[in-house]
Amino acid sequence: MTPSPFHGIFSNFGSDASAPAASPLNIVTEEEASLPVVPVGTAQPGQIAVDIYELENYYIIRAPIAGVKLSDIDIEVDDKVLTISGTRNPSDEVVNDQYYLQECFWGEFQRSITLPISIDPKKVKATFSKDSILKVLIPKEEKVKIVRISEG
Questions:
Q1: How far, in Å, CA of 58 to CA of 115, rounded?
Q2: 18 in a domain, yes or no?
């Protein structure tokens, strides 16, 4: 393969400039050794980033999902778990050996979020903005108020 014109530019991204340069040896840390080995060509679903916050009577899950149409997204509810899944397809085909760096995930994605309450699937609402932001609104459970009845 031809040397990349970007060789070395991305290898130290985010590292301390005063730190010694990485060794060219293939050294595997203990943490890396414990990661599962995925054979090349094996399709595993990617994940999407989410923000989760609460506002008044709702838990809100916000996920920027660029490159996806609303018809490519599924939202499933199972008790306390909400799962967002779908497929992100590239708009143009690029042969793998033409990439210098490939950080964007293309293909199937899935993200499951466990909330502290049981979710009623009939009450979940979702919007997908023109800016490709998925927003899922989950109503909080209604608290049962205990009223003491006194004599008198």
A1: 12
A2: no
Pick from 88, 102, 94: nearest CA to 134: 88
Mean pLDDT of the chain: 76
AA identity, residue 69: K
Q: Which domain holds residue 71?
A: 44-139
In the prediction, which pLDDT does 31 show? 54
Query: What's the pTM?
Result: 0.63
User: Is 85 a member of any domain?
Assistant: yes
Spatial strand order of the sheet with 81-88 comes to 73-78, 81-88, 107-114
Please tell me the predicted confidence (pLDDT) of residue 144: 59
**CATH number for the domain that contains residue 69:** 2.60.40.790
State CA 74 to chain mean position distance: 14
Total domains in the fold of the chain = 1
Q: Report which of 82, 76, 73 is spatially closest to residue 127, judged by C-alpha positions.
A: 73
